[in-house]
């Protein structure tokens, strides 16, 4: 199949592309190749390439910036996605789109399933939820995949790195580090998410899915585990979301339950601790 991947130089795409290339004809599209907000350019590129599958990993994901850049957040995360969905529907193509745990309020300390009602607290969460609804309404052949706390090796050199790389950098510098302990989630390795995407693509079980590593932890616990595995005696202390004072509100508990994966017999993702250890072992020696 011909597979177009938007956001081709991002963390998730960097793990997806090698897997896809083994079986499919790839059309990698970076932001420089095709701006998602330029609807005419997107349509023209898709018309020229004629993919049978479109995978959208592109997003406006700077959560705090979204609070001020509302129009830009919705332009990318909702309306840009809508145009992909409409093109796919018109050409009988499959669309794979990624969403977030931030669509949930997080006021209940219980894992959320696909059937649970969302209630985003932030502009980012609202824009991603809008994108979900538009995909599901416009494109019959869709996979909408919610995930959370993504990290991958491509992020170690990307914009600002990822959470793990930030922690390692601060820990080695000996700086005091405060990390919130009242936001619980499941950090997810792109190396584990990517193969699950390919498994879903091989089915015709379209719809909404939760895909994360197994288990749950707070950001503080994730940071502490990172330092322990890396052998760094960091000056780490817990703080609260209120004390941290981020511009955007985050859900206090956003662990995702994998009901639909379980129904397909595909709920076999490893625990977040195993994924973290594997990530740290696979870092370049100079990192």
How much helix is in the residues? 40-55%
Say how many strands there are: 12
Let me know the largest β-sheet: 6 strands, parallel
Instruction: Decide which structural class fits the backbone.
Output: alpha/beta
Physical arrangement of strands within the biggest beta sheet = 2-1-3-4-5-10
User: What is the tally of helical segments?
Assistant: 11
* Residue windows where pLDDT falls under 50 for at least 5 positions: none
Q: Assess the beta-strand content as a share of residues.
A: 15-25%
Task: Name the overall outline.
Answer: globular
Describe the model.
The structure is a single chain. This protein is an alpha/beta fold and 287 residues long. Helices cover 40% and strands 16% of the residues. It has eleven helices and twelve strands. The strands form four sheets. The protein has a six-stranded parallel beta sheet, sandwiched between helices. Strands 6-9 form a two-stranded parallel ribbon. The chain is globular and about 55 Å long. The two termini are 36 Å apart.
């Amino acid at each position: 199949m011909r597979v177009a991947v938007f956001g081709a130089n991002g963390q998730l795409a960097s793990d997806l592309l090698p897997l896809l290339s083994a079986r499919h004809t790839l059309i990698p599209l970076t932001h420089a190749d095709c701006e998602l907000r330029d609807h005419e350019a997107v349509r023209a590129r898709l018309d020229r390439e004629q993919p049978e599958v479109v995978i959208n990993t592109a997003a406006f994901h700077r959560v705090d910036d979204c609070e001020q850049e509302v129009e830009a957040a919705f332009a990318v995360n909702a309306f840009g996605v809508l145009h992909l969905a409409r093109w796919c529907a018109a050409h009988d193509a499959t669309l794979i789109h990624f969403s977030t745990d931030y669509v949930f309020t997080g006021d209940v300390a219980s894992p959320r399933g696909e059937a649970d009602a969302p209630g985003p607290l932030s502009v980012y969460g609202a824009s991603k939820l809008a994108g979900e609804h538009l995909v599901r309404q416009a494109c019959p052949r869709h996979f909408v995949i919610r995930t959370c706390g993504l990290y991958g090796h491509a992020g170690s050199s990307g914009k600002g790195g990822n959470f793990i790389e930030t922690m390692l950098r601060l820990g080695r510098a000996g700086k005091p580090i405060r990390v919130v302990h009242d936001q619980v989630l499941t950090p997810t390795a792109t190396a584990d998410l990517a193969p699950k995407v390919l498994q879903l693509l091989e089915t015709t079980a379209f719809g909404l899915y939760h895909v994360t590593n197994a288990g749950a932890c707070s950001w503080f616990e994730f940071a502490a585990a990172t330092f322990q595995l890396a052998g760094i005696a960091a000056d780490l202390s817990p703080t609260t979301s209120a004390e941290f004072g981020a511009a955007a509100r985050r859900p206090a508990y956003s662990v995702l339950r994998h009901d639909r994966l379980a129904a397909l017999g595909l709920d076999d993702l490893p625990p977040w601790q195993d994924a973290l250890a594997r990530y740290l072992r696979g870092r370049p020696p100079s990192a």
